[in-house]
Amino acid sequence: MNTLIATLILHRLAIAIITLLIVSFAVFFATSLLPGDTATILLGQAATPEAVAGLREAMHLNDPAILRFLRWILGLFQGDLGTSYANKMPVAALVGGRFVNTLKLAGITTLVSLPLALTLGITAAMLRGTLYDRIVTVLSIGVISIPEFMVATTAVLLFAVYLRWLPALSLANNVHSFADAVRIYAMPVITLTFVVSAQMIRMTRAAVIETLDTAYVEMARLKGASRGRLVLKHALPNALGPIVNAVALSLSYLIGGVIIVETIFNYPGIAKLMVDAVATRDLPLIQSCAMIFCLGYLILITAADIVAIVSNPRLR
After folding, report:
1. What is the pLDDT of residues 75-102, one digit of tens each?
2. Residue 26: enclosing H or E segment and its boundaries?
3. Where do the domains of the chain lie?
4. Does residue 83 sit in helix, strand or coil?
């Protein structure tokens, strides 16, 4: 059985690597199709055709696309993200600090949303059919129906414009105390928690209910086990795989949510950096940021699959 588990894990890792290669191909050629000429944007509309042609030659933009892709992918394998067209400095230096800010935002959101969603999902499954369960279900469906930009805009109007409790912009570099951190991260975290928690609550509830309806849990119930013991000892260990998958899928929504939230709140993260790079057609910077987001998504999904394999009692 251990050999089977190891084989399944290696197979999943191989799929992740192949997927990453396919994604890198798609990212490179999709960004190459962005409208506008990079050299013209950098030099301005007043640039002469000779100057534009010279810059395109210097930046190797006239090389065949497949050659530029191979040069770029080999650089990624060597840890070289390239040089920013607009900033004239290594992309790694630009991404470094911004990536830390995005990780902080995602980490704080996870610390808030994960306990909240798991608690609501598990308790709703334990109290299935009650008023509490119906309230949690209706609220989670309602939150799922609201797009991220609507939640962010409503938060700005309520907390920044009308109540004036929080700043409309989240400038992470101005954190000097715990109170500053609360004020700066409050609205982005609230917005992302709405995005992440609702789906996690529903999927966790469904996974626990499915496990509670199995024969061995029913046998434990007939033997007089309490509701808490049924969930904690019998249902949760066997529902761990689906719950971890639910958590990973929900947290992967942070990738899309972070892009919207960082743009609306002007948060200095990697998503905001990528959006700014699109305006200047800074292809190396756009491609590196997109690959970081894709890699984060793949890591979450692959980790969830591995946990599901290892926690499967039949495989063990």
Report:
1. 888 877 777 877 778 888 888 878 888 8
2. helix 2-32
3. 91-311
4. strand
pTM higher than 0.85 for the full model? no
Phi, psi at residue 90, to the nearest 5°? -55, 140
- May I ask the CATH class of domain 91-311? mainly alpha
